[in-house]
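Task 17 of the worksheet. Students: predict the tertiary structure of the chain below and write it out as structure tokens. Keep your answer in the requested format; marks are given for formatting as well as content.
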Amino acid sequence: MRLCKCVGVLCGVAVGIGMAIAGGFLTGEPALAQPGVQPVASPQKIATVDVLKIVERYIGKPELATARTDLITKWQGQIGAAQAERDAIATQARGLQPSDPKIQELSAQFQQKDADLQRMSQQAQSEVDTIVSQHMVQGYDAARTAVGAAATRGGYTLVLMSRAAAEPIKPQDQNMVIQQMLARSVVSASGVDDLTESIIADMKLPPLPQEAANPAPPPAASPAAAPPGQK
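Model answer:
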């Protein structure tokens, strides 16, 4: 009887081990460690994308370019009108004799108009910078969404953002050169897919006119001449 019980226990242990091994095969997890056998890493599928190029194309969309142009046109009119008022005061003062007591009054008006004009120019520049920045953020968010969709379709496990190697670094000031270098985070990518053009096609982005991504800033107020009564 004791022998039979021992055989039964051993059989039960063997069945348990067999089920554990089988369970490991079914779940994909090793049930028993095998000394000397290294796990095989899953293959990585990597791609690169020039997000900056996509953003440049995105903010060239007609509706965005029109919004920036309208803002610049508005400020051009306001700054032009304010500058004409300031210059009219100077013209009026030039028709007076230096001893005319009105010269002092016109000088104060001229200085006030000139200060208002400088503030207006600063506000215009700030608003243009803001709208361009907003459009760039919109483009970046849209690019990230499109890259995610393309990565899922293509089975890419990692997509690196890097300025395309074909884009030359422009020798400007040192800080700008450093920024351009940092934007090219991928130095060599042999055999790695570049998704930039396919994503541009997916997003249906228009060709980029030279002036679309870098709109001319609103005109700054021209330097004021000497206030009336001063040389």
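Marker's comment: The two ends are 126 Å apart (CA to CA). Confidence is low (pLDDT under 50) at residues 1-33.
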